[in-house]
Amino acid sequence: MGSSRRDLIRMTEAEATEFLSAKQSLQVGTIDPDGSVHLSTLWYAVVDGCVVFETYRKSQKIRNLERDNRITVLIEDGSTYEVLRGLIIKGRAVLLNKKEEVVPIAEAVLRRNQKGIPEEHIEEAAVRLAAKRTAVIVLPEKVVSWDHRKLGDIS
Q: Which residues, 6 or more positions from 113, have their beta carbon under 8 angstroms from its beta carbon?
């Protein structure tokens, strides 16, 4: 039996890692109290193989994750069908609120996304952020990927 279209477009682990490393923004989905999905866009980093980000401690997404730690994140790319690429990670969120836990996550996100901040100022900026923020580690349970560029002329 031949490969399915899904099998043809699935990214390898190496491709998914490279894609994740190349992008800047992440769509974060959490569950609101009424059961609807709350979506937001955040900068992120990858630490020890896991997507991490930090956000305001009093934000709706953190309130949602405190109540229900299920999380889905999406990274996507492409403006036409034949070049669409994406990665969905479904899992559980680990919330870190202690300053000493938040600072290294904030440093990683700053280093990755704020190239204009001199290295000697990263720690100071991260410490300021940590005062009002929660860090989130996404522990993956299921990963789904696609890269329509693999279809070539098949599409």
A: 24, 43, 45
End-to-end CA distance of the chain: 20
CA dist 143 and 133 (Å) reads: 27
Q: Per residue in 6-19, pLDDT tens? A: 888 999 999 999 99
103: CB partners within 8 A, 6+ apart:
123, 126, 127, 130
User: Can you tell me the distance from the alpha carbon of 37 to that of 42, in angstroms, rounded to the nearest whole number?
Assistant: 16
The H or E element containing residue 6 is helix 5-9
Contact in structure between 71 and 30 (CB atoms under 8 Å): yes
**What is the tens place of the pLDDT at every residue in 81-140?**
999 999 999 999 999 999 999 999 999 999 998 888 888 899 999 999 999 999 999 999
Q: Which domains does the chain have, with CATH numbers?
A: 5-148 (2.30.110.10)
Q: Give the per-residue pLDDT at 153.
A: 59
Instruction: Kindly report the number of other CB atoms within 10 A of residue 148's CB atom.
Output: 19
List 30's β-bridge partners, or say none.
38
Task: Name the token pair of 30.
Answer: 């959490």
Token digits of residue 24: 């800047």
